[in-house]
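Ticket #4471: structure export looks truncated?
Reporter: QA, pipeline team
Priority: medium

Steps to reproduce: submit the single chain below to the structure queue and open the exported record.
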Amino acid sequence: MADPRPEHDLPNIDFSQMQPVDAAYYRSVDDPGHPLRIALLYGSLRARSFSKLVALEAERLLKWHGCETRVFNPSGLPLPDAEEIDHPKVRELRDLASWSDGMVWVSPERHGAMTGIMKAQIDWIPLALGAVRPTQGKTLAVMQVCGGSQSFNTVNQMRVLGRWMRMVTIPNQSSVARAYMEFDDNDRMKPSPYYNRIADTIEELVKFTLLVRGRIDKLVDRYSERMESAAALSNRVNQRSL
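Actual output as written to the record:
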């Protein structure tokens, strides 16, 4: 079945089976109501970067689901701590993290791990920016591209990082084996089970983001921080009484 909205350019999708996510079913009463905001990061600077191409395929699917998207270009981002935090690319990345409701991370696997380019992007995103935690409680989907047989080392690593960043990493994930064989001369992904898994992952990310957004304040409210806040308030009151 053809795409009823051809501007989304999804030739691999069978639209008789592609179902829009029922936002009303997943949203909370406190949902802000604007389209989901999804930031996409990729981990390669090559002219023909397969992690970037996967990120762009994911972006097309996100747009079909009604999301607002932004893809970060890591070119020009300095190594962590090599520049101050007011560097333009650092500011751009941090602003993107704060703007987003969820993220997609796509990295090649190099020497059995994510690339340094991917890790540098994550390392520039702090757990806290003043009183704001730019990633806490937000959703994350992880994907990787492989030069050889299928591996899951990189997605597993990124799951650990997502947990460290206090993100809700969705269960589904994508690993594309022999990525150089999965794209045509126009840099579009060929129909395959790998593409279908990307579609699955994006659909699940949309569902989880709708489910979590609007509930973040309740989901991340924790005893230890309430105790810390109470102690800070007590100290302020006691100082005023001196």
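Status: closed, not a bug. The export was complete when the record was re-opened. Leaving a note from the reviewer for reference: The domain at 6-240 is CATH 3.40.50.360 (Rossmann fold).
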